[in-house]
Amino acid sequence: MFKTRMTELFGIKHPIMLAGMNWITDPKLVSTVCNAGGLGILAIAHCGPEDTLKLIREIRKLTDKPFGVNQILIGPNAKENIQAAIDEKVPVINYSLGKPWFVDQVHAYGGKVVGTIAIARHAAKAQQLGCDALVVTGHEAAAHGDVATSLVLIPVVAGQVTVPLIAAGGFYNGRGLAAALALGADGISMGTRFTVTKESMVHENYKQLVIEASEQDTLYSNVFDGMLGRVLKTKAAEKMMRSGFPMVEAFKGAKEVKDFMKLSYGKFIVMSFQMMGQEEGQPLWVLARQAVGNRRHLMAISQGDVSEGILFAGQNVGGIKDVPSVEEVIDRTIAEAEAMLDKIQKERV
Ligand SMILES: Cc1cc2nc3c(=O)[nH]c(=O)nc-3n(C[C@H](O)[C@H](O)[C@H](O)COP(=O)(O)O)c2cc1C
């Protein structure tokens, strides 16, 4: 057992978090992680406020343990989704990209705010804005890590802030948890590992592709959804890399975002420039490309479409070789971390 600042802050048994993943972190996966002693996080960027409420209430039927939501602040419906989570007094609000305007509201009901960062400079700022903990995402991660690897980023950030840190990017077992604690983190967040579990809704085709992949089999580029990110190296992903900027698809994505946000073309362009002006802001054009990435992501995880779909995946695919239950993942991660730390202790002279 580990008692760290992460377990104390959230009132959980193990210092392990389920990373927010659109569609994948459904109430079943979130509640299973919570019931196994970790912190389950429901990604809500693909939802509107009604769906957000519905999913939160479903989780509450499945677990009485603490859980959280994850929202990209620059996305459509971010304000409404966050408000829905606050109205429901969700214990942990995890955000990425953007400035949290809701810290006082969350603290007022005893909730915690967790910022996600991938660049050390953003860590001090997030702490200053009132974050209770930070997810620190390294280059190895699935989806949107930046250029610094976990090995470098975690100790750099640990030297700059005092809030608890949750290491993300590359973690899939107990060796990783032990290493993260040594690097200055208080626990780990895992995405790719939890996608390949019995309870994960990810299509069997993709679970199998992850199991067959080596640590070399991911691609890192901004062609997939407009932001630098990592996906599993499949024929579809390689085709996107070769054809570069997906102009036609991006225009379709722009229209989807415009319609989703009920904007005129004029308002869409004005908002796009306003968003570019913010430090971590992204033009709506990036959101349009995100819509492309999201559509292909959904094709992969729900239909198992290996020719057109893309799956965000981390370099840790090289170490993921089975489909255990969530409980097995958590229990063996803790047991292996304890064994590793005992071994190191015994080897000290
Ligand atoms: C299949 C998959 C989908 C993901 N979707 C999202 C997402 O929708 N939004 C997000 O902020 N991060 C997303 N991520 C990134 C995770 O939140 C997390 O940062 C990452 O998985 C950590 O790295 P790891 O995969 O090496 O554990 C996704 C990751 C995976 C594996």
Question: What does this molecule look like?
Answer:
With 349 residues, the chain is of the alpha/beta class. The chain is built from 15 helices and 10 strands. The protein has helices spanning 5-10, 27-35, 49-62, 78-87, 103-108, 120-128, 150-158, 174-183, 192-195, 204-212, 235-243, 247-260, 265-277, 284-303, 326-347, and strands at residues 16-18, 40-43, 67-72, 92-96, 112-117, 133-137, 165-168, 188-190, 218-221, 229-232. The strands form 2 sheets. The chain has an 8-stranded parallel β-sheet with strand order 1-8-7-6-5-4-3-2. It has a two-stranded antiparallel sheet with strand order 9-10. It is globular. Residues 276-281 have low confidence and may be disordered. The chain binds flavin mononucleotide. Flavin mononucleotide binds at residues 19-22, 24, 43, 45, 72, 96, 137, 140-143, 168-171, 190-192, 195, 311-314, 316.
